[in-house]
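> @MW can you paste both from yesterday?
MW: sure, first one:
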Amino acid sequence: CVRIDRLDVALRQERAALAQAKTLTAGLQAARAKETDAAKASLSALEAQCAKRVADGISRGRAIAQIVAKPVTPGQCFDITHSDLKAVVR
């Protein structure tokens, strides 16, 4: 079984990665305004990757939140396997 504290850690890690991707996206957008056309194309590709990472992070975060949202008590176990959890937080 997977303890609720492990899910909380996974959710916190996902939120941190999501914040980092959003910060990187904002930095790329600011840099894009100052660059040449060739550099803008490169930055566009990086922005697309960041946007996908943000979307994936939101999706994984929602999946984790659905598991965590169930009423629980400290130390309670969920009837899911570690491979299920890995699929969610991958």
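MW: second:
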Amino acid sequence: MDSDIASEHTYPLDRPSRHGLATPDLSAPEVPRRLSAGAAVIAILLISLGLWAVIVAAIGALASALLP
């Protein structure tokens, strides 16, 4: 296989693609910062309280449907 033909099928990162869709110079979306330890604890507590609320509501709905 000729080297020119082989290079046709590869797209190096330093060159835009054949169709012009690669735009490496555009600003990438911001990577979210990690939560601090306190914020992580608060988030975990809120999520667990939400899950408990869903579980209690489901049990209550089942109990009211089963018990006359």
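> thanks! The helical segments are 3-8, 37-66.
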